[in-house]
Design brief:
With about 750 residues, this protein is an alpha+beta fold. It folds into 3 domains: about 15-20 and about 455-595, Aldehyde Oxidoreductase, domain 4, CATH 3.30.365.10; about 30-135 and about 205-260 and about 265-295, Aldehyde Oxidoreductase, domain 3 (Alpha-Beta Complex), CATH 3.90.1170; about 300-455 and about 600-745, 2-Layer Sandwich (Aldehyde Oxidoreductase, domain 4). It is built from 20 helices and 31 strands. An 8-stranded mixed beta sheet has the order 10-9-11-19-18-17-12-31. A 7-stranded mixed beta sheet has the order 3-7-1-16-13-14-15. It has a 4-stranded mixed beta sheet with strand order 20-28-29-30, sandwiched between helices. Helix 15 (about 485-495) links the parallel strand 22 (about 470-475) and strand 23. The longest helix is centred in the C-terminal third of the chain and has 28 residues, at about 525-550. It is globular.
Length: about 750
């Protein structure tokens, strides 16, 4: 299919405002009478709250309001609320915003103050007296699963394969996916590799901290301005927490300085709203960086066991995984998507996956770019690499022999439609990188593969045609990676216009129909589809106007490339738009979609490393990311997503972690100590876009924002293995871990 706009690289619509500093982020919001809020947080990782005395803070000059959890309306805590990434009990959602009877992690919000400025609010918060009874804490999934472990929630009972056992424990859920007979599959194997793996908790690392401004107006309506990945998710969650109808809350999304899944949950909005109600003035809260690390949702740490069996020719006969993921303080450890994607790259007859969602005394986890999948892929792809080494088969050839294809059934049930797994692997094998030699000591090359399924969810779009032939596009999807432009390009393609002729605006929750979060690799897919349908609505109306001009039947009018024709008549979109006032008035195209057909994306990574045997430092020499985009709407943005996810995977693999003390204190809660990669730490990320159109989208779009973060950790682990001769099974693989592996390798067999 030939396109005129799709596949080109126009300048992004918000580019000028972003590079000149005119774009307004959450912290930039100002209004008359604005107070500043500050949240008091727990110094303990697990403690009972015996008493809170706010009197000194309330009496402090400049303070206008102080709140605790008692200011929340009393409702049924068992009621479920969707926070944008799935349903959770209302009691847990409220408890994470402000603690009630217990604090469950260091940094847990306890009380909040609104004052005339941020300094007075912080000083007043320090005057609040909280009496704690400190309790034992547990910080890892295996530790929390022990019968002797301290219980975090007395009302949490374990679900075992969908059935509530009634047993109180820290295991919230045990899920299982299976196909075939793994015992028979392992019995038929000529070689079995089984290993255990651990990954540390890591943070999304967005530059902009969480923020929220709220005004509880005299008419009872609440207006909220915040940096969020989903304004409707904020509206609905805040309404549920405050026991209000959604119609009483309007959320205006500001520009967002990164999110990667971490800015879907609400942390500040209900607190700012209650402070505003109590003070009678608008209240803004900005989260300090330490609180961002200690109190927002990182990705889960995990303990995993993976076992894979294969025949001598490389045919995989069985695969089994045990995944225990840390949920943090409240259930929701992302173990389900981790299990869904664990073996999804492969066409396997016998698979068994057990996943455990385990609460621990850490901040409650949130999504982070393909949540759960990088954990399980690190384990699975490491074992696949070891199989290839021991069978003396090229690691890409082994993957190609077992690659998923159209009709392959995943362990969690669905069959794949048309997918690009094989094409990604072929592109990896034929790449200049993979064909290039890697010589010299202490160097290694690794490859890995990853899959993310993507989602649909509702989206809405409105197109207003102007008299000069340009089109104003109204949508509700937060733009994190250029989606204003990728959505506008799809409308432009239908209308026969240039991308610059479309003027996109992201509006508040009162001004557009319901639109799901910017997450799950759904935005260009789903909101782009809404723009496509709205553009089709415009085309239909423009045909009617042309027919009226020419006094012909609308059915006789055709439209192609922005040119409308009927018999000898012909007119361009812009010329026709100049006459809409004389042919019936405004033209507004509308669409609301809830699309199925989300097409999963596969991504592969090839990485070369060099290890300094004296220090354990890893240098990334070369890195190539290969990904199936379905259809690359804006190739530069696709490449940017691929590069961004790859760099985050590099940081996850080599340095990033929550370094915790035994009493649950994060010891590196700043960007100085939480070691994220910079431009000095990574090479230019080479990209290869594969296009296997998704049959479930009008333009063949597959979401590309997440699959690229899945393979880097395993690819780097495999490269390090071939550089030093021994396998690392714990993330991060920082210099001390590599030096320890080198020392241990001297007293064991190679690649042990």
């Amino acid at each position: 299919m030939k396109f005129s706009v799709i596949g080109t690289r126009p300048i992004r619509h918000d580019g000028a405002d972003k590079v000149t500093g005119r774009a307004l982020y959450g912290a930039d919001f100002q209004m008359a009478g604005l107070l500043r809020g500050f949240i008091l947080r727990s110094p303990h990782s697990h403690a009972r709250i015996k008493r809170i005395d706010t009197s000194r803070a309330e009496a402090f000059p400049g303070v206008h309001a102080v709140i605790t959890t008692k200011d929340f309306p009393q409702v049924d805590g068992k009621k479920m609320v969707d926070l944008g990434e799935g349903a959770t009990p209302l009691a847990y959602a409220r408890g994470n915003v402000l603690a009630s009877d217990k604090v469950l992690y260091r940094g847990h919000a306890v009380a909040a103050v609104a004052a005339v400025n941020a300094h007075i609010a912080e000083e007043a918060a320090s005057l609040i007296v909280v009496e704690y009874e400190v309790l034992p804490c547990v910080l890892t999934a295996p530790g929390a699963m022990q019968p002797s472990a301290p219980i975090i929630h007395q009302d949490l009972t374990t679900k075992e394969l969908g059935v509530d056992t009634g047993k109180v424990s820290n295991i919230a859920d045990h899920i299982r996916f299976s196909i075939g007979d793994t015992e028979a599959g392992f019995a038929a194997a000529d070689l079995i590799v089984e290993r255990e793996f651990n990954t540390a908790t890591v943070h999304q690392g967005y530059i902009e901290p969480q923020n929220a401004t709220a005004l509880w107006n005299n008419d009872g309506r609440i207006s909220i301005w915040c940096s969020t990945q989903g304004s409707f998710a904020v509206r609905d969650a805040t309404a549920a927490i405050l026991d209000l109808p959604v119609s009483q809350i309007k959320v205006t999304p500001m520009e967002i300085g990164g999110g990667f899944g971490g800015k879907i949950n609400v942390y500040l909005e209900p607190v700012a709203a209650l402070l505003s109600k109590k003070s009678g003035r608008p209240v803004k809260i900005l989260m300090p960086r330490q609180a961002v690390f200690e109190a927002t949702g990182p990705t889960p740490g995990s303990y995993m066991k993976v076992k894979i069996g294969a025949k001598e020719d490389g045919t995989i006969t069985a695969a089994q995984a045990y995944l225990a993921f840390e949920a943090g303080a409240y259930p929701g450890a992302m173990v389900v998507p981790g299990a869904m994607t664990a073996f999804a790259c492969y066409d396997l007859a016998n698979v068994l996956i057990d996943g455990y969602d385990v609460v621990v005394n850490k901040p409650s986890t949130a999504a982070y770019r393909a949540p759960g999948a990088p954990n399980s892929a690190f384990a699975v792809e490491s074992v696949i690499d070891e199989l290839a080494y021991k069978l003396d088969i090229d690691p890409i050839d082994l993957r190609l022999k077992n690659a998923a294809k159209e009709g392959t059934r995943r362990a969690d049930g669905p069959k794949f439609p048309r997918i690009g797994c094989i094409e990604v692997l072929q592109a990896m094998k034929n790449s200049a990188h993979y064909k290039s030699p890697l010589t010299g000591p202490n160097k290694g090359r690794g490859v890995a593969l990853g899959f993310w399924f993507n989602i649909g969810l509702p989206s809405s779009c409105t197109l207003n045609v102007t008299a000069d032939g340009s089109v104003n596009l109204i949508e509700g999807s937060t733009d994190i990676g250029g989606s204003r432009t990728s959505i506008s390009m799809q409308a432009a393609e239908v209308l026969g216009l240039q991308a610059a002729d479309i003027h996109p605006t992201i509006v508040d929750t009162d001004s557009i129909g319901y639109t799901g979060v910017t997450g799950g690799s759904r935005t260009t897919f789903a909101t782009g589809w809404a723009a496509y349908e709205a553009a089709q609505d415009v085309v239909r109306q423009m045909k009617e106007r042309a027919a009226k001009l020419w006094e012909v039947s609308p059915d006789s009018v055709s439209a192609e490339g922005g040119i409308y024709k009927s018999g000898a008549h012909s007119i361009g979109f812009k010329d026709l738009a100049s006459q809409i006032a004389d042919t019936g008035g405004p033209i507004v195209g509308r669409a609301a979609v809830n699309p199925r057909g989300a097409g999963g994306s596969f991504a592969g990574a090839i990485v070369d490393v060099e290890i300094d045997p004296e220090t354990g430092k890893t240098t990334i020499l070369r890195f190539t990311c290969v990904q199936d985009a379905g259809r690359a709407i804006h190739p530069a943005y696709v490449e940017g997503q691929m590069q961004g996810g790859s760099v985050q995977g590099i940081g996850w693999a080599l340095n990033e972690e929550y370094f915790m003390s035994t009493d649950g204190r994060m010891m590196n809660s700043s960007f100085l100590d939480y070691r994220m990669p910079t431009a000095l730490d990574v090479p230019m990320i080479e990209t290869i876009i594969v296009e296997v159109p998704n049959p479930g989208h009008p333009f063949g779009v597959r979401g590309v924002g997440e699959a690229n973060i899945i393979p880097p950790q395993a690819a780097i682990a495999n490269a390090i293995t071939h550089a030093i001769g021994t396998r690392l099974t714990r993330l991060p693989m920082n210099p001390p871990a590599i030096m320890e592996a080198i020392w241990c390798q001297k007293s064991s067999s190679p690649l042990s």
